[in-house]
Amino acid sequence: MKADGPGLVRALYDAVLDGALWPNTLQTFADRFNSSHAILAVGSAASCAPDVVWAGVERPFQELYARSFVNGNNTIQLAARREFQDEPYTDWMALPDGSFQRSAFFQDWCRPQQIQTLLGAEVIHDARGIALLGLGRPEPYGDSELSVFRKLMPDLRRIMGLRLRLFDVDLQRARLRALLDAVSTPILLTDSACCLLHANHRAEYLLRAGGVLHISQNRLAAPTEHETDMLRRVVRSAGANNGGASLRLEAANGTHAGVSVVPVHADHGWAEGSEVCVAIFVTGSAEYAAVEPSLLTALYGLTPTEAAVAAMLGRGDGLPATASALGMKTSTARTHLHRIFDKTATQRQAQLVALLRSLPRRAVGAGLP
Question: Helix, strand or coil for residue 120?
Fold first, then answer.
Protein backbone atom coordinates (compact mmCIF):
# COMPACT_ATOMS: atom_id res chain seq x y z
CA MET A 1 0.00 0.00 0.00
CA LYS A 2 1.29 3.49 -0.83
CA ALA A 3 0.01 6.81 0.45
CA ASP A 4 -0.72 8.48 -2.91
CA GLY A 5 -1.07 11.63 -0.84
CA PRO A 6 -1.83 14.28 -3.49
CA GLY A 7 -4.62 12.30 -5.18
CA LEU A 8 -6.29 11.31 -1.93
CA VAL A 9 -6.00 14.78 -0.42
CA ARG A 10 -7.42 16.31 -3.60
CA ALA A 11 -10.40 13.94 -3.43
CA LEU A 12 -11.00 14.90 0.21
CA TYR A 13 -10.98 18.61 -0.62
CA ASP A 14 -13.43 17.97 -3.47
CA ALA A 15 -15.76 16.21 -1.02
CA VAL A 16 -15.64 19.18 1.35
CA LEU A 17 -16.85 21.42 -1.48
CA ASP A 18 -19.46 18.92 -2.71
CA GLY A 19 -20.97 16.90 0.14
CA ALA A 20 -22.50 14.37 -2.26
CA LEU A 21 -18.96 13.06 -2.91
CA TRP A 22 -18.32 12.04 0.70
CA PRO A 23 -19.52 8.40 0.56
CA ASN A 24 -17.35 7.56 -2.47
CA THR A 25 -14.43 9.58 -1.13
CA LEU A 26 -14.59 7.84 2.23
CA GLN A 27 -14.63 4.50 0.42
CA THR A 28 -11.52 5.60 -1.48
CA PHE A 29 -9.86 6.49 1.83
CA ALA A 30 -10.80 3.06 3.21
CA ASP A 31 -9.42 1.34 0.12
CA ARG A 32 -6.07 3.07 0.60
CA PHE A 33 -5.77 1.19 3.88
CA ASN A 34 -7.30 -2.07 2.63
CA SER A 35 -10.21 -1.51 5.01
CA SER A 36 -13.68 -3.00 4.73
CA HIS A 37 -15.42 -0.36 6.88
CA ALA A 38 -15.02 3.36 7.51
CA ILE A 39 -16.72 6.16 9.42
CA LEU A 40 -16.38 9.94 9.26
CA ALA A 41 -18.21 11.82 12.03
CA VAL A 42 -18.08 15.63 12.06
CA GLY A 43 -19.89 17.82 14.57
CA SER A 44 -19.38 21.51 15.25
CA ALA A 45 -19.62 23.05 18.69
CA ALA A 46 -22.95 24.63 17.65
CA SER A 47 -24.58 21.38 16.54
CA CYS A 48 -26.57 18.91 18.61
CA ALA A 49 -25.53 15.86 16.60
CA PRO A 50 -22.66 15.04 14.25
CA ASP A 51 -22.95 14.46 10.54
CA VAL A 52 -21.89 10.85 9.91
CA VAL A 53 -20.75 9.32 6.61
CA TRP A 54 -20.22 5.58 6.20
CA ALA A 55 -18.38 3.22 3.88
CA GLY A 56 -19.10 -0.51 4.01
CA VAL A 57 -21.51 -0.28 6.97
CA GLU A 58 -25.08 -1.44 6.43
CA ARG A 59 -27.98 0.63 7.69
CA PRO A 60 -28.89 -1.51 10.75
CA PHE A 61 -25.34 -1.05 12.06
CA GLN A 62 -25.39 2.66 11.22
CA GLU A 63 -28.55 3.00 13.31
CA LEU A 64 -27.07 0.92 16.15
CA TYR A 65 -23.99 3.17 16.17
CA ALA A 66 -26.17 6.29 16.27
CA ARG A 67 -28.19 4.91 19.19
CA SER A 68 -25.36 3.52 21.26
CA PHE A 69 -21.91 4.79 20.33
CA VAL A 70 -21.98 8.05 18.39
CA ASN A 71 -21.41 10.28 21.44
CA GLY A 72 -18.06 8.74 22.25
CA ASN A 73 -19.29 6.31 24.89
CA ASN A 74 -17.45 3.34 23.44
CA THR A 75 -14.40 2.00 25.21
CA ILE A 76 -11.79 2.48 22.53
CA GLN A 77 -12.73 6.07 21.69
CA LEU A 78 -12.60 7.11 25.34
CA ALA A 79 -9.22 5.43 25.83
CA ALA A 80 -7.80 6.94 22.64
CA ARG A 81 -9.01 10.40 23.61
CA ARG A 82 -6.97 10.22 26.81
CA GLU A 83 -3.78 8.84 25.26
CA PHE A 84 -3.70 9.72 21.57
CA GLN A 85 -5.01 13.24 21.06
CA ASP A 86 -4.09 14.49 17.56
CA GLU A 87 -2.48 11.17 16.72
CA PRO A 88 -3.76 8.06 14.91
CA TYR A 89 -4.12 4.88 16.93
CA THR A 90 -5.11 1.24 16.64
CA ASP A 91 -7.17 -0.80 19.07
CA TRP A 92 -4.09 -2.63 20.32
CA MET A 93 -2.41 0.71 21.09
CA ALA A 94 -5.39 2.24 22.90
CA LEU A 95 -6.35 -0.92 24.81
CA PRO A 96 -3.26 -3.14 24.96
CA ASP A 97 -4.73 -5.46 27.58
CA GLY A 98 -7.28 -6.86 25.13
CA SER A 99 -10.24 -5.17 26.83
CA PHE A 100 -11.38 -3.89 23.45
CA GLN A 101 -12.47 -7.40 22.47
CA ARG A 102 -14.45 -7.65 25.71
CA SER A 103 -16.24 -4.31 25.24
CA ALA A 104 -19.89 -3.92 24.23
CA PHE A 105 -18.76 -1.92 21.19
CA PHE A 106 -16.72 -4.83 19.89
CA GLN A 107 -19.26 -7.54 20.74
CA ASP A 108 -22.36 -5.69 19.50
CA TRP A 109 -21.00 -3.66 16.60
CA CYS A 110 -17.59 -4.82 15.39
CA ARG A 111 -17.78 -8.59 15.69
CA PRO A 112 -21.06 -9.06 13.75
CA GLN A 113 -19.45 -7.14 10.86
CA GLN A 114 -16.23 -9.22 10.95
CA ILE A 115 -14.27 -6.21 12.18
CA GLN A 116 -11.43 -7.43 14.36
CA THR A 117 -9.21 -4.38 14.48
CA LEU A 118 -9.48 -0.59 14.13
CA LEU A 119 -7.32 2.29 12.93
CA GLY A 120 -8.45 5.86 13.47
CA ALA A 121 -7.92 9.33 14.85
CA GLU A 122 -9.82 12.24 16.32
CA VAL A 123 -8.49 14.54 13.64
CA ILE A 124 -9.97 17.55 15.45
CA HIS A 125 -11.26 17.79 19.01
CA ASP A 126 -11.27 21.37 20.26
CA ALA A 127 -13.53 24.42 20.63
CA ARG A 128 -14.48 24.21 16.94
CA GLY A 129 -15.97 20.74 17.32
CA ILE A 130 -14.93 17.19 16.59
CA ALA A 131 -13.93 15.26 13.48
CA LEU A 132 -13.45 11.52 13.91
CA LEU A 133 -12.10 9.31 11.12
CA GLY A 134 -12.08 5.56 11.73
CA LEU A 135 -11.30 2.41 9.73
CA GLY A 136 -11.97 -1.26 10.39
CA ARG A 137 -11.12 -4.65 8.89
CA PRO A 138 -10.51 -8.29 9.89
CA GLU A 139 -6.66 -8.19 9.76
CA PRO A 140 -4.49 -6.16 12.17
CA TYR A 141 -3.06 -2.82 11.06
CA GLY A 142 0.70 -2.52 11.03
CA ASP A 143 3.27 0.20 11.68
CA SER A 144 3.52 1.11 7.98
CA GLU A 145 -0.21 1.90 7.84
CA LEU A 146 0.04 3.94 11.02
CA SER A 147 2.90 5.86 9.42
CA VAL A 148 0.85 6.63 6.32
CA PHE A 149 -2.10 7.82 8.43
CA ARG A 150 0.27 9.96 10.51
CA LYS A 151 1.70 11.63 7.38
CA LEU A 152 -1.83 12.48 6.23
CA MET A 153 -2.80 14.11 9.53
CA PRO A 154 -1.70 17.71 8.71
CA ASP A 155 -3.80 17.67 5.53
CA LEU A 156 -6.66 15.95 7.33
CA ARG A 157 -6.69 18.67 10.01
CA ARG A 158 -6.96 21.41 7.39
CA ILE A 159 -9.64 19.52 5.48
CA MET A 160 -11.70 18.76 8.56
CA GLY A 161 -11.31 22.33 9.81
CA LEU A 162 -12.84 23.52 6.56
CA ARG A 163 -15.56 20.88 6.86
CA LEU A 164 -16.43 22.17 10.33
CA ARG A 165 -16.68 25.74 9.05
CA LEU A 166 -19.00 24.69 6.24
CA PHE A 167 -20.96 22.54 8.67
CA ASP A 168 -21.66 25.68 10.72
CA VAL A 169 -22.71 27.54 7.56
CA ASP A 170 -25.13 24.72 6.69
CA LEU A 171 -26.46 24.79 10.25
CA GLN A 172 -26.95 28.55 10.14
CA ARG A 173 -28.76 28.26 6.81
CA ALA A 174 -31.07 25.56 8.17
CA ARG A 175 -31.89 27.74 11.17
CA LEU A 176 -32.64 30.70 8.89
CA ARG A 177 -35.01 28.53 6.85
CA ALA A 178 -36.74 27.38 10.04
CA LEU A 179 -37.06 30.99 11.15
CA LEU A 180 -38.62 31.99 7.83
CA ASP A 181 -41.04 29.06 7.98
CA ALA A 182 -42.17 30.06 11.46
CA VAL A 183 -43.27 33.50 10.20
CA SER A 184 -46.93 33.80 9.21
CA THR A 185 -46.15 36.32 6.44
CA PRO A 186 -45.23 34.92 3.01
CA ILE A 187 -41.53 35.61 2.38
CA LEU A 188 -39.75 34.82 -0.88
CA LEU A 189 -36.05 35.13 -1.66
CA THR A 190 -35.05 35.68 -5.29
CA ASP A 191 -32.06 36.79 -7.29
CA SER A 192 -32.12 40.04 -9.28
CA ALA A 193 -33.78 38.25 -12.23
CA CYS A 194 -36.71 37.14 -10.03
CA CYS A 195 -35.57 33.48 -10.05
CA LEU A 196 -36.79 31.90 -6.81
CA LEU A 197 -34.10 30.97 -4.26
CA HIS A 198 -36.34 30.10 -1.32
CA ALA A 199 -39.95 30.43 -0.21
CA ASN A 200 -41.19 29.89 3.31
CA HIS A 201 -44.22 27.67 3.95
CA ARG A 202 -46.71 30.56 3.64
CA ALA A 203 -45.15 31.70 0.39
CA GLU A 204 -45.26 28.16 -1.05
CA TYR A 205 -49.00 28.12 -0.30
CA LEU A 206 -49.35 31.49 -1.99
CA LEU A 207 -47.50 30.32 -5.12
CA ARG A 208 -49.56 27.13 -5.33
CA ALA A 209 -52.71 29.25 -5.28
CA GLY A 210 -51.38 31.18 -8.27
CA GLY A 211 -53.31 34.39 -7.63
CA VAL A 212 -51.23 37.46 -6.83
CA LEU A 213 -47.91 35.69 -7.43
CA HIS A 214 -46.88 32.61 -9.38
CA ILE A 215 -43.89 31.10 -11.17
CA SER A 216 -43.73 31.57 -14.95
CA GLN A 217 -40.78 30.20 -16.93
CA ASN A 218 -38.81 29.74 -13.70
CA ARG A 219 -39.28 33.38 -12.67
CA LEU A 220 -41.61 35.08 -10.22
CA ALA A 221 -44.56 36.71 -11.95
CA ALA A 222 -47.59 38.86 -11.03
CA PRO A 223 -51.20 38.58 -12.32
CA THR A 224 -50.72 40.83 -15.36
CA GLU A 225 -47.86 41.52 -17.72
CA HIS A 226 -47.73 45.14 -16.58
CA GLU A 227 -47.55 44.16 -12.89
CA THR A 228 -44.93 41.53 -13.68
CA ASP A 229 -42.77 44.13 -15.41
CA MET A 230 -43.12 46.47 -12.41
CA LEU A 231 -42.27 43.70 -9.95
CA ARG A 232 -39.20 42.63 -11.89
CA ARG A 233 -37.97 46.20 -12.27
CA VAL A 234 -38.24 46.75 -8.52
CA VAL A 235 -36.48 43.44 -7.77
CA ARG A 236 -33.71 44.26 -10.27
CA SER A 237 -33.23 47.66 -8.64
CA ALA A 238 -33.11 46.13 -5.16
CA GLY A 239 -30.61 43.58 -6.39
CA ALA A 240 -28.37 46.44 -7.47
CA ASN A 241 -28.57 47.81 -3.89
CA ASN A 242 -30.65 50.80 -4.98
CA GLY A 243 -33.04 50.32 -2.08
CA GLY A 244 -36.40 48.61 -1.83
CA ALA A 245 -39.91 49.55 -2.86
CA SER A 246 -43.53 48.49 -2.37
CA LEU A 247 -46.17 47.47 -4.90
CA ARG A 248 -49.86 46.62 -4.84
CA LEU A 249 -50.91 43.61 -6.92
CA GLU A 250 -54.43 42.49 -7.74
CA ALA A 251 -55.48 39.08 -9.04
CA ALA A 252 -58.28 38.39 -11.51
CA ASN A 253 -60.52 37.04 -8.73
CA GLY A 254 -60.30 40.37 -6.87
CA THR A 255 -57.81 39.34 -4.20
CA HIS A 256 -54.97 41.77 -3.71
CA ALA A 257 -51.67 42.02 -1.86
CA GLY A 258 -49.05 44.51 -0.85
CA VAL A 259 -45.54 43.45 -1.89
CA SER A 260 -42.45 44.91 -0.20
CA VAL A 261 -39.10 44.29 -1.87
CA VAL A 262 -35.91 44.56 0.22
CA PRO A 263 -32.28 43.89 -0.80
CA VAL A 264 -30.40 41.30 1.28
CA HIS A 265 -26.61 41.10 1.26
CA ALA A 266 -25.23 37.69 0.31
CA ASP A 267 -22.81 37.65 3.25
CA HIS A 268 -25.82 37.30 5.56
CA GLY A 269 -26.09 33.68 4.45
CA TRP A 270 -29.50 34.02 2.78
CA ALA A 271 -28.47 33.93 -0.84
CA GLU A 272 -28.05 30.18 -1.33
CA GLY A 273 -24.95 30.62 -3.45
CA SER A 274 -26.24 33.61 -5.42
CA GLU A 275 -24.25 36.84 -5.47
CA VAL A 276 -27.49 38.83 -5.19
CA CYS A 277 -30.48 38.14 -2.97
CA VAL A 278 -33.74 40.05 -2.67
CA ALA A 279 -36.43 39.44 -0.04
CA ILE A 280 -40.09 39.86 -1.00
CA PHE A 281 -42.66 40.22 1.78
CA VAL A 282 -46.36 39.78 0.90
CA THR A 283 -48.91 41.48 3.14
CA GLY A 284 -52.63 42.19 3.23
CA SER A 285 -53.66 39.41 0.87
CA ALA A 286 -56.68 37.17 1.23
CA GLU A 287 -54.55 34.63 -0.63
CA TYR A 288 -52.73 33.53 2.50
CA ALA A 289 -55.54 34.32 4.94
CA ALA A 290 -57.19 31.02 4.11
CA VAL A 291 -57.64 28.44 6.83
CA GLU A 292 -54.63 26.14 7.10
CA PRO A 293 -55.48 22.72 5.61
CA SER A 294 -53.81 21.04 8.60
CA LEU A 295 -56.35 22.71 10.90
CA LEU A 296 -59.24 21.32 8.83
CA THR A 297 -57.69 17.87 8.99
CA ALA A 298 -57.39 18.13 12.76
CA LEU A 299 -60.93 19.49 13.31
CA TYR A 300 -62.96 17.51 10.79
CA GLY A 301 -60.80 14.60 9.71
CA LEU A 302 -60.50 15.82 6.14
CA THR A 303 -57.92 14.15 3.95
CA PRO A 304 -55.06 16.39 2.74
CA THR A 305 -56.75 16.77 -0.67
CA GLU A 306 -60.17 17.51 0.86
CA ALA A 307 -58.55 20.04 3.21
CA ALA A 308 -56.81 21.78 0.29
CA VAL A 309 -60.11 21.97 -1.64
CA ALA A 310 -61.96 23.34 1.39
CA ALA A 311 -59.27 25.93 2.17
CA MET A 312 -59.35 27.32 -1.36
CA LEU A 313 -63.13 27.43 -1.42
CA GLY A 314 -63.10 29.17 1.97
CA ARG A 315 -61.02 32.05 0.68
CA GLY A 316 -63.47 32.66 -2.17
CA ASP A 317 -62.19 30.57 -5.08
CA GLY A 318 -64.86 28.86 -7.13
CA LEU A 319 -64.92 25.11 -7.73
CA PRO A 320 -63.46 25.29 -11.30
CA ALA A 321 -60.59 27.55 -10.15
CA THR A 322 -59.94 25.28 -7.18
CA ALA A 323 -59.86 22.20 -9.39
CA SER A 324 -57.49 23.88 -11.84
CA ALA A 325 -55.12 25.07 -9.11
CA LEU A 326 -54.98 21.59 -7.59
CA GLY A 327 -54.55 19.84 -10.93
CA MET A 328 -57.81 17.89 -10.95
CA LYS A 329 -61.04 17.78 -12.92
CA THR A 330 -63.97 19.89 -11.72
CA SER A 331 -66.01 16.69 -11.31
CA THR A 332 -63.30 15.30 -9.01
CA ALA A 333 -63.29 18.50 -6.96
CA ARG A 334 -67.10 18.26 -6.71
CA THR A 335 -66.78 14.70 -5.36
CA HIS A 336 -64.36 15.97 -2.72
CA LEU A 337 -66.79 18.79 -1.93
CA HIS A 338 -69.63 16.37 -1.16
CA ARG A 339 -67.34 14.43 1.19
CA ILE A 340 -66.42 17.72 2.86
CA PHE A 341 -70.12 18.51 3.31
CA ASP A 342 -70.58 15.16 5.09
CA LYS A 343 -67.59 15.64 7.40
CA THR A 344 -68.37 19.28 8.28
CA ALA A 345 -72.16 18.79 8.62
CA THR A 346 -72.81 21.43 5.95
CA GLN A 347 -75.12 21.16 2.95
CA ARG A 348 -74.22 23.99 0.57
CA GLN A 349 -71.03 25.67 -0.56
CA ALA A 350 -72.08 29.02 0.91
CA GLN A 351 -72.72 27.34 4.26
CA LEU A 352 -69.30 25.68 4.11
CA VAL A 353 -67.57 28.98 3.28
CA ALA A 354 -69.31 30.69 6.21
CA LEU A 355 -68.11 27.91 8.52
CA LEU A 356 -64.55 28.13 7.26
CA ARG A 357 -64.39 31.89 7.65
CA SER A 358 -65.54 31.58 11.24
CA LEU A 359 -62.52 29.41 12.10
CA PRO A 360 -59.09 30.64 13.23
CA ARG A 361 -56.56 30.75 10.43
CA ARG A 362 -54.51 28.03 12.11
CA ALA A 363 -54.44 25.98 15.29
CA VAL A 364 -53.03 27.79 18.31
CA GLY A 365 -49.43 26.74 18.86
CA ALA A 366 -49.38 24.63 15.71
CA GLY A 367 -46.46 24.69 13.32
CA LEU A 368 -46.93 25.68 9.75
CA PRO A 369 -47.50 22.83 7.31
Answer: strand
